[in-house]
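Researcher: Going back to the complex we discussed earlier. I've cleaned up the inputs and rechecked each line, so this should be the final set. Can you rerun the prediction on the complete assembly and write out the structure?
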Amino acid sequence: MPIYNAPTKDLQFVLHDLLKVSEQDIAGYEDLDRDFTGAVLEEAGKVATAVLHPLNVVGDKEGCVLENGVVRTPKGFKAAFEQMKEGGWTAMDCDPEYGGQGLPYVMNSAAMEPFVSANMAFNMYQGLTHGAYSAIHAHGTDEQKQKFLPKMVSCEWTGTMNLTEPHCGTDLGLMRTKAAPQADGSYKITGQKIFISAGDHDLADNIIHLVLAKIEGGPEGIKGVSLFIVPKIIVNDDGSLGDRNAVSVGSIEEKMGIHGNSTCVMNYDGATGYLLGTEHKGMRAMFTMMNEARIGVGLQGYAQAESAYQNAVAYANDRLQGRAVTGAENPDGPADPLIVHPDIRRNLMDQKSFVEGARAFTFWGANLIDRAHRNGDKDADGLISLLTPVIKGFQTDKGFEYAVAAQQVYGGHGYIEEWGMSQYARDARIAMIYEGANGVQALDLVGRKLAQDGGKHVMAFFEMIKTFIKENEGNEALKADFLDPLKAASKDLQAAGMYFMQNGMKNPNHALAGSYDFMHMMGHVCFGLMWAKMAKAAMEALEGGASDTAFYETKIATGRYYMARQLPATTMHLARINTGADTVMALDAANF
Amino acid sequence: MPIYNAPTKDLQFVLHDLLKVSEQDIAGYEDLDRDFTGAVLEEAGKVATAVLHPLNVVGDKEGCVLENGVVRTPKGFKAAFEQMKEGGWTAMDCDPEYGGQGLPYVMNSAAMEPFVSANMAFNMYQGLTHGAYSAIHAHGTDEQKQKFLPKMVSCEWTGTMNLTEPHCGTDLGLMRTKAAPQADGSYKITGQKIFISAGDHDLADNIIHLVLAKIEGGPEGIKGVSLFIVPKIIVNDDGSLGDRNAVSVGSIEEKMGIHGNSTCVMNYDGATGYLLGTEHKGMRAMFTMMNEARIGVGLQGYAQAESAYQNAVAYANDRLQGRAVTGAENPDGPADPLIVHPDIRRNLMDQKSFVEGARAFTFWGANLIDRAHRNGDKDADGLISLLTPVIKGFQTDKGFEYAVAAQQVYGGHGYIEEWGMSQYARDARIAMIYEGANGVQALDLVGRKLAQDGGKHVMAFFEMIKTFIKENEGNEALKADFLDPLKAASKDLQAAGMYFMQNGMKNPNHALAGSYDFMHMMGHVCFGLMWAKMAKAAMEALEGGASDTAFYETKIATGRYYMARQLPATTMHLARINTGADTVMALDAANF
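Model: Rerun complete. Updated structure for the full complex:
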């Protein structure tokens, strides 16, 4: 049986030592003092460990079952979902006008992490609802908001996102689902959607589907796509539940992982839908959900690696195998624990330095979102827009890689389902795919975000790193181990950007052939910045007389590892990028 | 339903254009002309596609079932196994004295690849038998050989390897299985073994288990381990089957993949066993099986990637999504096929250049084994001993990585079991673990093989590369694209070796902390050498007027991709290695 304990101390470190949230001039942040966030995170951690984590294996084994048109979730999910609702965990950062607690997004992210680590498939029911909530909140009429949001905030009703169809996922302009306008202002929605997470289940009284469809007679392609609210059960004007809508589950997909979440084929057969936002502007409205969802998926990536890492550490300390090459460390035992071996440590340090870097980067990003939304800060908005594909793409690639690495620590036992390590890898795998496959994230980053607003945000990004290095260059403790590698990595990234500028104009393939490498490179530079900032914060805490010296010293040592062992990857990515598109595009399609 | 077609043309290319097998002065190679090998491989490909491939998904879905102490394999496995036996595919490189065909190992490897690609789990029944055959052939008495080998060559009886116990895998000195000497010279074996692939099944009349155990009163630890032949059913002196031995299946493990192969917990309760080889020298005898098995596992790694790649290419050509950034390539269709997009090509070229490099490296290694065994060439033996952990460790890491990459081409469909891409990833995952987890391969390489025979073999390895570069430096077509990158990568590898020499003496952790990076680095250098040799061979074929110009030109272009896009990884690995053990070993175990 795998273990999971919320890393409350590290969550607090990121919020307070790194981000110093309570000192930030953002509405709502004044409440985020150490005691308050500590109490919330402590409680979230307890729920994660006691309620959600034991159901993780259950969800994987049982999966969801479609019986007589109704989806049944695994045993225990319903009771746990009730506990989440009662505890108010579904409503943390939602608008108080609709029953939410109005907490900042950064606080929501920190509290969510333990839930996602403990049971990713379970947490998706709430996560999708939150995305649908955000879209309605941003684009709905007052009437729509009053009608749907309070029940979605409380998760009495859950939500979904319906984009993909059998023949199109990324290229939604090809979609075939139709919306026929009705005399009463509603629409009849007809078509099939696939891969609908939480598409149906027995956890809520109603499910509010957000569905992309084309209004008949509208523009061709992506410009004719609109977004609709399609409730599973029609909601009467008085808020009571009315008739069953013409929405049904075609089947449940058998997946590699996240078996606890029902991934449905949804059939809309003239279902009643209500336009959300402006007609033919459905993609814009959908992106409100997608950007938030992408950061959430980036969190899933490292949250699975965190769980897997905790188990790998426990196993490495427990399993006796071989002797330390420098002399027995457990001389009274039959062998030393795995953790004495340098290559096991190399593996564990890779995992640890990734997870902690990702946590910092994700919350730092959430802080930018708060700054953008609560303070109307356009620069913060531009920066998080630039970095969203990096948070999603880099962190889910690496999250999967390190879930696999954690599995490897177990040797043969890692391959046996009973030990639970396979599930972390199988569950983490989806995060690289959904909400835009990572290749699409790389395309978004290089093909769109770099040049956004005349390249203003990427220039601000480099300026931010330069400023940080300049401000701290007198700090000898930081210089060699942190600032110098960060400078070198940032220089590599700039050189890659320069290559794209100089060559991408002539032939855009020269830029796009390097997009994936660039996304990873930028991830490393962002993590390098985070680690330099975290090391600085930890040094300051130690200088300030912090009592938990082992924690802060470990933080600095882990950062040193990342800078020494991970950051050199930028040289490789740059070398690849600099070879351009010639070898990538050389073959005729027939010769693959 | 996934596809699979044997890459016969490329198998032939490696045997004849690259290795020029029929020109080599090795006994048995004189028969390996193009027509003969072509006919064999053509037939192997047919069997793989028609018989084994359709059972791959069946095996994954059904798995093996333990009923009343007997393991039942998935539907169709038994009939297919009969076909393999009848076709003589189980006996290709076995000793003619025991019914084998006596073909070289390189030919066996080439014919095996399609079987492994088509159905890895199925092929393991035969693969394990071959390993057990080799151990008995090398270490058995004449009587043992006469008694067991003919039936194992024909696969009427299959074989297994029993090493791992619940509390020990890598560190076999801890094993508890006991062997009690009997008056008649046999032993009573008592203990439990786990992870026994093909441990029981319904494909054969008998199963010959090779079991490591400690003879009572022998030396402590690994020096007291002996190897025993323990038949499932006792074989009478006249060769007929006698009583059931005291061997039973405890359970079948539920695994992440290779469901078609029965992975058993085996219980030995005073089972009759016969010493194989010398007492207390069981590890030496077992290594006869393990070295062969490790090369076979390296083949599994890329063979799964090959299958996954074939499907990814088909999907990328079929799936219409988006438009080429340089202008529509399928203007009459609703969208262009995925394969027009640079990042999809980057992904497919990664896969293709890996698989073809791995095929060349594996057969080149098999050729060294033939040279060692058939010509008694000690240098070839030393070189393949050095490279075995690289073939196993690098190729299985990358094989899994690219099976995952192929899955990624499918987007959401890659995560759905129905499409079959998940199985390739799940099946490929085991190859990184069994026959010595890849961290153990790295330890073997850096901790043992580099220094073997005074470092003679690694020096010969570098000399071989240097000589190749020198011999071809006048070849302008090779120089910039192939020889220069090979030279640079080889220099990086030498620098890493130098770092180990200079620092590993003081503190062996400085070497072992870099062992995994070194293994990957050496893999890249070996692949770089293969690609340079293949490019040269392809250029010569074109100059010689070969008619299939597209094939040879594609080969050269694929090689250029590898050299440009993959070989730069050596710089990153060197940078990591050069940071030594300090950051790796910095933390106390309690602070992870």
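Model: Worth noting: The domain at 53-87+119-280 of chain B is CATH 2.40.110.20 (Butyryl-CoA Dehydrogenase, subunit A; domain 2).
Researcher: Good, that matches what I expected from the previous run.
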